[in-house]
Amino acid sequence: MPRFIAPDADRKPRKRRAHTKSRKGCGNCKLRQIKCDERKPTCKNCHRFGVLCNYGQQAIPGEGILQVAMNGPYQIGILPSPSAKTAVLGALNAALRREPFLDSQNPVLQLTNRDLDILTRFQFRTTPTLATTGSQDLYQREAIRLACLHPFLMHVALGITLAHDRHLESSPPVPPSTAELHHLYRGTAMFNKTLQGPLTSSERDAVWASGSLLTASALAQIDAKVPEQAWPLVKPTENDLTWIMVFDAKRELWRIANPSREDSCLRAFAEEGYFSLHAPGYPKPTLTELPEDVIQLLGLDGSDTNSDNPYRVPATTLDNILAMESSQSTVLCYLSFLCLMPHDFRSLLQQKDPYALILMAYWYAHFSQSRAWHIWRRCILECQAVCIYLGRHHGDILGIEKILEFSRRLCEVGTV
Questions:
Q1: In this structure, is the dihedral angle defined by the CA atoms of residues 399, 402, 408 and 410, taken in order, positive or negative?
Q2: In angstroms, rounded to a whole number, what is the distance separating the alpha carbons of residues 120 and 147?
Q3: Whole-model pTM?
Q4: Could you give the 3-state DSSP secondary structure of residue 51?
Q5: What is the distance between the terminal CA atoms of the chain, rounded to a whole angstrom?
Q6: Domain segments of the chain as ranges
Q7: Are 380 and 333 contacting, i.e. CB atoms less than 8 angstroms apart?
Q8: Residue 282 and residue 284: Cα distance in Å, rounded?
Q9: Please, which pLDDT band fits residue 31 given cuts at 50, 70 and 90?
Q10: Of 24, 52, 53, 238, which residue is least crowded by CB atoms under 10 Å?
């Protein structure tokens, strides 16, 4: 049936709602060409979009960008539209251009859409794996905020995320990409230059965050694919155990950045870190977790009184660690074994001292159960290599087969 259409004379005229055009909206809404509710100090649109509301001024003259609210609710990765992505990229690049240490060797970092995708993975996937369960939310929020303010940390964040990608995509991981090496090299160079001058509070926090990420990168970098290619089975080189020496630099960074200071945004993260925490209850008056035959082999009587014994501190630290469950919440406690490692004990490791290797094998084996992506392959391969080395060269140690049973069982051949 045809639709009936009333004659023009019978139609009621449509009334247009009266309105007044306001020119009092914020600069961001004008730039985005959307209606502003003019709420102050932050309009609803800017609050939801995560940018600084700029009443009384336009966006940065000549830039055509929005200024990201670094302390606001905005999170990279939650982008409402392609146009929003463009605006956020502009805001981040504008912030990075304000870095004072840019020169011909360190030109301006210009992020791309691909970089923004990498940063999304950095914030929501990579940073939670590098903190304990208690500090994940803080580190996830503050690491990305600091990266948006300091190009050296931005480079390091991009590099460590690309390294994480490699470890997730293939087993064994493929060699680092050009992009990963570029970001880690540039980030390290700018990081070292930043350390040469006086540091602001924000720079000190960014320095500590960069140091933590670079440490994870060093732990993750292992070329061996089978135990026979891993330390201590391979021919000695000057690069042996350099990944442990990284923690010497980390101790110096702690002194410079002091993330436990009152104005540090990473203070809560630092308070449960390996330099201040050591391990719960450290030092323990007795050794209760290491097997009795290991304690006797090391010349320890189970007490913490023999200060001249080079195995005392690492054995006590390891004993604390063995009492814990290997999980994300105890990652920093496990790393305390490396942070608190005395130089004389490290020298024993470099000399492939069998007793030092036994303690190292126990640490590798127990930590491997956390399956932390940046350390797991090293733990498995080098633990297997240590066990093979001790079996070949120190089979005459009384009870060595029983002593190595724990490490061999947790890091059995074929798990890599």
A1: negative
A2: 12
A3: 0.76
A4: strand
A5: 75
A6: 22-74, 88-221, 275-410
A7: no
A8: 5
A9: low
A10: 238
